[in-house]
Amino acid sequence: MDGKRVLIETKLKVFLAKKKNPDLNEALTPKIQQELIERLIDGTTCAIVDSLKDLQHFKESELLEERENKIAEIKNRGGNEAEEMKKFDLEVVRQIDELVMEQQNHLSCAHVPLFKTTSDPKEIKIQMEIFEFISSLTSLLSK
Q: What is the pTM for the complete model shown?
């Protein structure tokens, strides 16, 4: 376990240095960093993030296909493409926001530090960075 801890700590330091995001650095206090490392050691959090990424990829592919079908449908019947696509795209954004909230909820339930359901763009950006970090460890920690 100590080898994993050292690996995660090192990867986290490198990640934070590369990101140079003051909000992320401020949010990830030494205490929060240790809580995050604890969550990552057994691999469960990485598995959750991996599953969430798969679900997100599936949803994005589904929405893209729906959008392409909608464009073809509008062109075939000669509708107002700009107006109808604006409505459709707003619905897509709503669905993506819903997906983000579901991901936040899953990670919050898994006690991943700094994850909670929020619509605050600054907090979401920090969560995205942490999600990216966890995702980057998946292949390393599953060995």
A: 0.87
